[in-house]
Structure formats: C-alpha cells, structure tokens
Specification:
By secondary structure, the chain is an alpha+beta fold. The protein is built from nine helices and nine strands. A hairpin with a 5-residue loop joins strand 1 and strand 2. Helix 1 packs parallel to helix 6 and helix 3 packs antiparallel against helix 6. It is globular, with a radius of gyration of 19 Å.
C-alpha cells in the first residue's frame, strides 16, 4: 500500500478517544441522577483512569492507551471503557492468525497499527442488562480494516428492551445500506454464541470484522455510526430499570449469567486472545470480566 495512512490513523484514534469521553460523561451522569433504590444513598461512582502500555518482544515501547474503570457505583457494579493505540511487529502466532484470515504480506512485513475502544458494563441491578461495545481499526502495510459492534446481555430478559436496543442499531445502520443491519445482526448471533453451552451469550446486537469495502471514508463513517448508536440504545434501558426492586433470586440469576460472560470472553473472544498474544496490558485486556460471578 503506497498511501500514507498516518492522517487516517490519527482521525480514527481521535474518534475512539472522543467516543470514550462521551460515554464516560453519560455514565457518570447516570450515577449522579440515580435518586431511588437500594444504592441511591451511596456516593455516585466515578471512573478511575490509568495509562496502559504494550511492550514489544524486544522490550521496546509499542503504544498503549487509557483504561477507565468504575467500580462499586450506584448503577454500575463494574464498567470499563478502554481506548488504545498500539503498533509494532506481530509475533509468529499473530502473523499466522492474520494470514489465516486472508491478510496479505505477513511474511514480508509483519508491521501493524491498531486503535479502538472497548466497553463492558456489569450492572448493580439484575434488571439492568450488561452490555458490550467496541469499534476498532487495524492497519498493516498491505491491508486495513474496521471492526466492532455492540450486544446486550440481560440476565432477566425484557422483550421491549431487546426491541429498543436493536431498533437503535437499525436506525444508525440503515443510512449505510438497507441490507447492513440484517447482515450484522446475523453475524453477531453467530459470533456471540457459546458452543459448549449451546446458547447465545445474550439477546444479540450487531457485529462486523474485516470491513474493507475499498472506500476508507465510507467504512470509517459506518464505524462511527456503530459507536454513535450505543448511548441511545443502552442509556434509556438503564434509566427505566435502575430503580426496579430485585430479589436474592434475581441477583443469583445475574451472577450465574455472568459466568457465561466470563466463559465466552476467556475461551472464544478474538479480541481477548489477540490482546494477550500481542503483549498488551493484561489488566486492560481482561477488564471485561465481571467483578463477581457464579457457576452452578
């Protein structure tokens, strides 16, 4: 690829950081406005910030990012919103994985650059669904692509919540093509399936990977709208359910469902495997794991 991608990399990374700022502000706003329910008298939660670093195999600096985690809030039991910008040389295992996905030129030049945002929220109230969202851009000297999506993971399912979440995804994707939402929904249903449990992780959402139409601007715009869909899809659900009373049985169901979430992320999730295999900060990579979980 002869084009200098430096400006496009910068635009993509800046967008991911900007989306992070919007989400953090919205989530802290939910904490501030929670006025009824079991934890409403507690201090509102706040995000703790820490820099993350990726270390190359030779010990040199290879980028990093910002980890933002809130624990023990009124509304959020644990939520992380991480952004990263990493680069360097892919190791043999990562080169093999990239080549298997059809990325050309891995043997000739295994250089790479990647940036993205990754979010996972585990809620205090079992009636409030857990959620995951990420968007990312990956570049090598011979290829580039975008990926990401979001999916809803309730332990107690409400049909209206599922409809609202999916409707917001559709609204943001339809301007990019009427066939896009059905395709990305089906992709999410397949990707977030847990084979050894023979069930889905949650009620789905949208997912894409290896998105390269040949038009970088169009693909970047699509990725931005996937990110923009998140807050209007998720926040109204939490506003409606954060004060809903729950029982010990509800909390138990939440902990069991979190076990499913942990199993999926540790066994199947491509992002978790890539982050650990390429030397990124393990605390940031494993941010998605719930604070407490239960297996029966």
């Amino acid at each position: 690829m002869s084009e200098d991608f430096t400006p496009k990399k910068r635009r993509a990374a800046d967008w991911f950081y900007s989306l992070r700022d919007q989400i953090v502000a919205a989530f802290e706003g939910l904490e501030d406005s929670h006025s009824t329910g079991p934890l409403s008298d507690a201090a509102p939660g706040r995000f703790e910030l820490s820099d993350t670093k990726r270390t190359a195999e030779d010990g040199s600096d290879a980028g990093g990012g910002l980890m933002s985690v809130m624990r023990g809030g009124r509304v959020f039991e644990k939520v992380g919103v991480n952004v990263s910008e990493v680069y360097g040389q892919l190791g043999p295992a990562a080169q093999k994985a990239m080549a298997a996905r059809g990325v050309p030129g891995m043997k000739d030049d295994p250089s790479f650059w990647a940036s993205g945002i990754s979010l996972v929220a585990h809620m205090q109230n079992p009636h409030c669904p857990a959620v995951h969202m990420n968007t990312r851009m990956f570049w090598t000297p011979h290829a580039w692509w975008f990926g990401g999506g979001s999916d809803l993971n309730p332990c107690i399912e409400y049909e209206g919540d599922t409809v609202h979440f999916h409707d917001q995804q559709r609204r943001h994707l339809d301007p990019h093509g009427a066939d896009l939402y059905p395709r990305l929904k089906a992709w999410a249903d397949e990707y977030f399936y847990i084979p050894h449990r023979q069930r889905a992780r949650g009620v789905g959402g949208i997912f894409m990977d290896d998105q390269n139409s040949g038009d970088w601007e169009a693909d970047f715009a699509l990725t931005q709208d996937i990110g923009r869909a998140f807050l209007p899809a998720f926040v109204p659900l939490i506003e409606a359910r954060r004060s809903q009373p729950w029982t010990d049985a509800d909390k138990d169901a939440q902990l069991v469902h979190r076990g499913l979430y942990a199993e999926y992320n540790l066994v199947y999730d491509r992002g978790t495997k890539f982050g650990l295999a390429t030397g990124h900060d393990p605390s940031a990579v494993l941010m998605s794991l719930p604070p407490m979980a239960k297996w029966v």
